[in-house]
Amino acid sequence: MEVSYCFSLTFGVLKNIYFMGNLGFQEILLIAVVVLVLFGGRKIPEFMRGLGKGIREFNDAKNNVKKELEEGMKEKDHPETPASN
């Protein structure tokens, strides 16, 4: 399965929407309506807020691991020499 461009805008008009496969504007609109009917208008912002918080926590953890790895590699390249008497 190939992931194509998400949005292609031309002069403010939505030209093509490609997600996975041939998912078009009508299909996305139908999915949005079904989600709205199932979860209601109040649950969607709560869900999106939780999703955003989860993504933020994931990115923070990813950045912390990257930082620790870079510091570890830096220490390996330049070991501290013990002070001589």
UniProtKB/TrEMBL annotation:
Cellular component terms (Gene Ontology): TAT protein transport complex
Cell location = Cell membrane
UniProt keywords (A-Z) are: Cell membrane, Membrane, Protein transport, Translocation, Transmembrane, Transmembrane helix, Transport
UniProt-listed Pfam families: TatA_B_E
Q: Which residues cross the membrane?
A: 17-39
InterPro entries found in the cross-reference section: TatA/B/E, TatA/E
The membrane-topology field of this record reads: Single-pass membrane protein
GO-annotated molecular function: protein transmembrane transporter activity
What are the GO BP annotations of this UniProt entry? Answer: protein transport by the Tat complex
**Assembly information from the UniProt record:** Forms a complex with TatC.
Protein family according to the UniProt entry: Belongs to the TatA/E family.
The function of this protein is:
Part of the twin-arginine translocation (Tat) system that transports large folded proteins containing a characteristic twin-arginine motif in their signal peptide across membranes. TatA could form the protein-conducting channel of the Tat system.
Q: Kindly provide the name given to this protein in its UniProt entry.
A: Sec-independent protein translocase protein TatA
Organism for this UniProt entry: Hydrobacter penzbergensis
Taxonomy, top ranks, is: Bacteria, Pseudomonadati, Bacteroidota, Chitinophagia, Chitinophagales
